[in-house]
Fold:
Amino acid sequence: MDIPLHSTTTDPDKVVSFPLSGPTQPSRSQLDNIKAQLDLVLLALEALVGIGSEAVLQAAADLNLQAVVGDRVALWRLRQSNPLRRGTGGRKKLDIEEARSLVMISCHLAQQHQATIREAVERLEDLAETQRQPHHVAQLGDYLDNFTNTYQDRMAEDALSTDALSDLALKLLIDLLFYSNSQGPRRLWMALLDRANHPTE
Structure:
C-alpha cells in the first residue's frame, strides 16, 4: 500500500481570505467538474464521522449561509448536481456562490471533526509503514465500508470498482486533514480548480 502523505506547516491564527476572483474565478466547465468533487468530500465526511443533512444545515447556519443552503431540499438539489449520481430529478447547475458555500461548509465540518480525521490518518500512516491493509483497523475498515456502500448506492451503475473506491476514499481521508485547518477553504478551492483543469489525473 503506497499512500502519499504530505507534511505542511501552517499558522493556525492566520486569517485566510477565500479566493473567488482573479485567476481563481472558475469557468462554467470548471464548475461542472467541481460539483462532483464537492459531493465526494461531503461523502467522505459522512462515511468517517456519520454527519447527516442536519449537521450540514447547522454548519450553513454557523457560517450565515442559509440563503444558499437553507433547508434539506436546497441541500439535496445541490448535491444532486453531481453528474455521477443516479437519476436526474432535481439536478441543477452549480453557481459560484453555491460552490463557495459548499467549500466553506465542508471545511467547517472537517474542523469540527479534526481530531477524528487526524486519528484516522495517523493509523493509516502506521499501516503504511508495516504494509498492512486498512481493513485491519476497525476505524479505517468501517470508513472504507461506509464510503464504498454509500458511493455504490448513490452513484451511477458504471461507477468505480471496489479497489478504486478504496483508493479514492483513502485519498479523500488524507485531503480532509488538510481541509480541517485554518487554510482549509483555500486548500480545497485550489484543489477543486486543479482537478477541474485536469479531470483525468
Q: What stands out?
A: The chain has one domain: 27-197. The helical segments are 28-49, 53-62, 72-80, 96-112, 114-130, 138-154, 162-179, 184-197.
